[in-house]
Specification:
Its EC number is 5.1.3.2. It catalyses: UDP-alpha-D-glucose = UDP-alpha-D-galactose; UDP-N-acetyl-alpha-D-glucosamine = UDP-N-acetyl-alpha-D-galactosamine. The protein is of the alpha/beta class and about 350 residues long. It has a domain of about 240 residues: NAD(P)-binding Rossmann-like Domain (Rossmann fold, 3-Layer(aba) Sandwich), CATH 3.40.50.720. The protein is about 40% helix and about 15% strand. The chain has a 7-stranded parallel β-sheet, sandwiched between helices. It has a two-stranded parallel ribbon with strand order 7-10. The protein starts with a strand and ends in a 12-residue tail after the last helix. UDP-4-deoxy-4-formamido-beta-L-arabinopyranose (WQD) binds next to α8 and β8.
Length: about 350
């Protein structure tokens, strides 16, 4: 009998790998498709993230995990997956995500994130798979004045700060239009705020190639001695300590949000539903540094710099819709995010890349 599975694109990536663990632990069978463009791979082409997931979960869960190397934009591969398995829903967590690179190479982002998503959606449609959970981002929101915070799903979107953010909004619009054209489609667009931390085991976590763009991997690499100091981008923002404020969410909480979304999908009231995945609490750069110092016992050297172009002062959400629709709310604290990230960084000073080429 054909096995019923959840298909996840980008399942070897940071968020994707944690989603895979939670899905397996929730009893789902999971097919991962990943072209490993941003994930490390071994000689046998099985990415370390997948091998480590196999170690985290138990033997029966391990048997329910399948890996296929390839692009979700490759129609032949997608056809073969949809023919081999009965896919009950797709979690689309694949795609490029470097904000800076997207400004330098916008076409790369529009092709990889938008054009290939069209192939994915068309393949799903042709195989009559019409349930999708999309990894969207809080960057789809237009900048709002501080009095309009927290951000709700009704807050204005658009006027994106970079092509990466535009691709997320394009894909949301494509998916929304598809639900309008065909009432069988069910789409949940999970707008992640700032996913950080790592799995409690220390086995999987964020593994950026090159110099990290994001705050927490950079702090972790300073703590472990790979970088000299953290550049704090802006100390004159209208925030309590002058540094940027964000809504950090433990990646395992984010992953659990996908399991909750999967359960809620069949009973959705409308075809397309954006949902914020955030804690509702803003934390500043310096507060994150202090939390990491507490977790690691290492002093993080900081150097105050100018603001980073495109950054906003403050961003956090109102997570009530996620609770109403999914029964989901964040459970893990900022201290747990830092403790788990520190464990991962300590156990894997060179990340998941086998040869440590991510230096
Ligand atoms: C957080 C805060 C920085 C680095 C981006 C994407 C978003 C997303 C998460 C993508 C800001 C400050 C950072 C550093 C610093 N998801 N900072 N020194 O910009 O909120 O969101 O990443 O996949 O889509 O836009 O996250 O971690 O880059 O920055 O001072 O070296 O830390 O200025 O205030 P951001 P971030």
């Amino acid at each position: 009998m054909t096995e019923t599975c959840v298909l996840i694109t980008g399942g070897a990536g940071f968020v994707g790998s944690h989603v895979v663990v939670e899905l397996l632990e929730a009893g789902e069978s999971v097919v991962v498709i990943d072209n490993l463009s941003n994930a490390a791979s071994d000689k046998d082409n099985l990415p370390p993230a997948i091998k480590r997931i196999q170690n985290i979960v138990n033997a029966s869960q391990r048997k329910r995990l399948y890996f296929r190397k390839g692009s979700y934009g490759d129609r032949n591969i997608m056809d073969s997956i949809f023919n081999e398995f009965k896919i009950k829903a797709v979690i689309h967590a694949g795609g490029f995500k470097a904000v800076g690179e997207s400004k330098e190479l916008p076409m790369k982002y529009y092709k990889n994130n938008v054009k290939e998503a069209l192939t994915l959606v068309k393949a799903m449609n042709d195989h009559d798979v019409k349930n999708i959970i999309f990894s969207s981002s809080a960057t789809v929101y237009a900048e709002v004045p501080p009095e309009k915070l927290p951000l709700t799903e009704e807050s204005p979107v658009g006027n994106c700060s970079c092509p990466y953010a535009s691709t997320k909004l394009f894909i949301e619009n494509i998916l929304r239009d598809v639900t309008v054209s065909d009432g069988q489609w069910k789409v949940m667009s999970l707008r992640y705020f700032n996913p950080v931390g790592a799995h409690h085991s220390g086995m999987i976590g964020e593994d950026p190639k090159g110099i990290p763009n994001n705050l927490m991997p950079f702090i972790a690499q300073v703590a472990v001695g790979r970088r000299k100091a953290l550049n704090v981008f802006g100390s004159d923002y209208p925030t309590p300590d002058g540094t940027g404020v964000r809504d950090y969410v433990h990646v395992v909480d984010i992953a659990k949000g996908h399991v909750a979304a999967l359960k809620a999908l069949p009973n959705m009231k409308q075809g397309f539903q954006p949902i914020n995945l955030g804690s509702g609490v803003g934390t500043s750069v310096l507060e994150m540094v202090q939390a990491f110092e507490r977790a690691s016992g290492v002093v993080i050297k900081t150097v105050m710099q100018d603001r980073r172009p495109g950054d906003v002062a403050s961003m956090y959400c109102q997570p009530t819709l996620a609770f109403e629709e999914l029964g989901w709310k964040t459970e893990k604290t900022v201290d747990e995010m830092c403790e788990d990230l520190w464990r991962f960084q300590n156990q894997n000073p060179n990340g998941l890349h086998p040869s440590g080429e991510s230096n």
